[in-house]
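Title: [Solved] Protein translocase subunit SecE 3D structure

Original question kept below for reference.
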Amino acid sequence: MGAAGKEISKTEAGKETRKASKAGEGAWVKTQQYFRSVWAEVKKVHWPTRNESIVYTGVVFLTVIIVGLIIWLFDSFLSFFLNLLLK
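Solution (posted by the thread starter after getting help):
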């Protein structure tokens, strides 16, 4: 048996060939298995509570505002001094 659980036979040239039981069945089974594993992982996730989400959103907004103000101040000072140098 191969690593994927399919039968492997040797040809005369020594190459391995895989036998498919039914055409397309492997893809369907793999797709189902994929979505089952995705659902299992989603169940494992620690989802934040409503209050945690509100707090995290507030922190993000506050951080964006502070960083925006810092960039604006830096840009304003550079523009002011650049205008002084060019005049």
